[in-house]
Specification:
Layout lengths: L4 E6 L8 E5 H9 L3 E2 L17 H23 L45
Antiparallel strand pairs: 1-2, 1-3
């Protein structure tokens, strides 16, 4: 089952003023880190407004937004953190060596293509 997704409105960082569709976990983390909001949240009139962020909280929110954006860029480029090496003593799988053939390896289509026979006229 795929992850549930939600939209967020980004307030800080490289994606500022953009609406992004992200996983629910990323949306909750962004909202709790104060660098994004839920664009569909309707504030209750009796609800207490969010107090302004201090300078330290604003700096932490910007750093969280930049860290998240960098992780997304790294994942898109395939340059993220490398996978953990297997535990000691685990057998290592190797690539299969191709057959020793003049062409290097066998392909799915090994027979030559023959042209269709000409049609007979009556």
């Amino acid at each position: 089952m795929p992850d549930e997704t939600r939209q967020i409105q980004v307030l800080l960082g490289p994606y500022r003023d953009h609406r992004l569709t992200v996983s629910s976990a990323d949306a909750d983390a962004a909202i709790n880190s104060h660098w994004a909001i839920d664009p569909f949240h309707v504030a209750d009139p009796d609800e207490e407004p969010h107090p302004p962020l201090s300078e330290a909280e604003r700096t932490a929110a910007l750093e969280a937004a930049q860290t998240w954006a960098q992780a997304q860029w790294d994942a898109a480029q395939g340059t993220g953190t490398p996978p953990e090496p297997p535990p000691e003593g685990t057998p290592v799988r190797r690539d299969v060596k191709p057959e020793d053939r003049p062409g290097g390896y066998a392909t799915r289509h090994t027979s030559p293509v023959t042209p269709p026979a000409p049609k007979r006229e009556r």
